[in-house]
């Protein structure tokens, strides 16, 4: 479990900070109100914290000695203080603290909370530093590492492109524009032929103030451009902001492709994205691909008599049953209303039919309970063999067989005719 050492002697700030830490998932908190208490906490045999949030001015350590204590125990540290002193700030940043944040507004506490939330995610995120200078590459990497990113290095354009290919966790590249072989512009052009800006961001870097280079980088697909001589804080803020853009686009894409109620893929994903991926599917000997369409029998009556909340509970329950059918590359989607689809990859006909028959038996033996009411679900299913190059034909045939199932009594599977 993640443990935070909070060193704060003001009761008001302690209470506010603890509340924010809980909001971002940091529930195990060691609170100290002095240097001595902090030292005692760190000497306890319960394990060291993985993060410290400290004030600089303490009753028994008024000059930032608490940072030295955290450094001694090798704990990543954020300074959160009311002391506005450029010299002290510079001194603390040189010691390697993650950030130096002033308690000058309610927004600063929100900034700290968001920073802590990101720090928990950053070790999974790759950042690539491209620079032909070993000294500058190492210096930039050390700065980026302060926020716990997984940092990769490359000394040339070719090496950077190979590193991107080998490490799918890289979300952002810091690229020097001036290199002796292929410059940053050549790298940027090559990257954009393979990776969209929404998938891999690029920040251009240079030691030379040249507005033309900045414009060229931005035109070729960079998200930002920074001076190598900028402060570490500015660089880390730009890294964070560019990654935030990528995360937001990813979030919007998920929302666009996912059904909000059931968590399944939606019609748009099935017809636009999944159908493209399906074209690459291969089948083993004796196996084929299959498409099953289904909708719930008499669902309108459930909404009319038991209410839409109960209807939502039925849809959610049915989605859970469908998820159990899927394995490997199988795709499960809600097409709209009470209509669902399952695409089976590389399965025998016997296996698919057995799974769908088990589904019919399972849902009829599992009544949905909601607000004291109980209802047995039933569904009709149409199954068709799927040729990856003719997705629409399989969809039409499965739909035809679905309605044949409804005409012949409902609550059953039709796989022929």
From TrEMBL:
Residues 3-118, 126-243 form the Response regulatory domain. The modification 4-aspartylphosphate is found at residues 55, 176. Residues 287-417 form the GGDEF domain. It comes from Roseibium sediminicola. InterPro entries: CheY-like_superfamily, Diguanylate_Cyclase, GGDEF_dom, Nucleotide_cyclase, Rev_trsase/Diguanyl_cyclase, Sig_transdc_resp-reg_receiver. Keywords: Nucleotidyltransferase, Phosphoprotein, Transferase. This is diguanylate cyclase. It catalyses: 2 GTP = 3',3'-c-di-GMP + 2 diphosphate. It comes from the Bacteria. Its EC number is 2.7.7.65. CDD domains: GGDEF (cd01949). It holds the Pfam family GGDEF. GO terms for molecular function: diguanylate cyclase activity. SUPFAM superfamilies: CheY-like, Nucleotide cyclase.
């Amino acid at each position: 479990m993640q443990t935070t050492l909070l060193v704060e002697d003001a009761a008001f700030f302690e209470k506010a900070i603890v509340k924010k830490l809980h909001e971002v998932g940091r529930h195990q908190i060691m609170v100290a109100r002095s240097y001595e208490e902090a030292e005692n906490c760190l000497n306890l045999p319960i394990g060291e914290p993985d993060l410290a949030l400290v004030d600089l001015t303490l009753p028994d350590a008024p000059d930032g000695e608490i940072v030295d204590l955290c450094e001694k125990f090798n704990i990543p540290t954020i300074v959160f203080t009311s002391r506005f002193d450029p010299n002290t700030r510079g001194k603390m940043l040189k010691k390697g603290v993650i950030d130096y944040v002033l308690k000058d507004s309610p927004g600063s506490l929100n900034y700290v909370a968001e920073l802590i939330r990101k720090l928990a995610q950053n070790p999974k995120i790759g950042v690539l530093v491209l620079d032909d200078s070993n000294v500058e590459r190492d210096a930039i990497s050390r700065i980026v590492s302060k926020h716990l990113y997984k940092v990769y290095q490359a000394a040339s354009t070719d090496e950077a492109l190979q590193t991107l290919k080998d490490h799918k966790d890289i979300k952002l590249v810091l690229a020097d524009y001036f290199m002796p072989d292929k410059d940053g512009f050549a790298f940027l052009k090559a990257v954009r032929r393979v990776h969209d800006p929404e998938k891999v961001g690029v920040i251009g870097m240079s030691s030379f103030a040249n507005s033309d280079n900045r414009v060229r980088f931005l035109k070729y697909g960079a998200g930002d451009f920074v001076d190598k001589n900028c402060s570490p804080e500015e660089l880390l803020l730009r890294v964070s902001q560019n990654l935030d853009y990528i995360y937001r686009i990813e979030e919007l894409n998920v929302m666009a492709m996912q059904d909000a109620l059931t968590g399944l893929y939606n019609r748009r994903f099935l017809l636009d994205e999944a159908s493209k991926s399906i074209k690459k599917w291969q089948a083993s000997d004796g196996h084929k691909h299959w498409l099953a369409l289904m909708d719930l029998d008499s669902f309108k009556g459930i909404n009319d008599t038991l209410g839409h909340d109960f209807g939502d509970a039925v849809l959610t329950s049915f989605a859970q049953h469908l998820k159990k059918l899927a394995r490997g590359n199988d795709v499960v989607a809600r097409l709209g209303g009470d209509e669902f689809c399952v695409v089976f990859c590389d399965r025998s006909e016997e296996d698919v039919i057995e799974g769908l028959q088990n589904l019919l038996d399972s849902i009829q033996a599992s009544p949905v309970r909601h607000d004291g009411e109980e209802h047995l679900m039933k569904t009709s299913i149409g199954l068709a063999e799927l040729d990856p190059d003719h997705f629409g034909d399989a969809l039409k045939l499965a739909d035809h067989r679905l309605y044949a199932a409804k005409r012949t009594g409902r609550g059953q599977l039709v796989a022929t005719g």
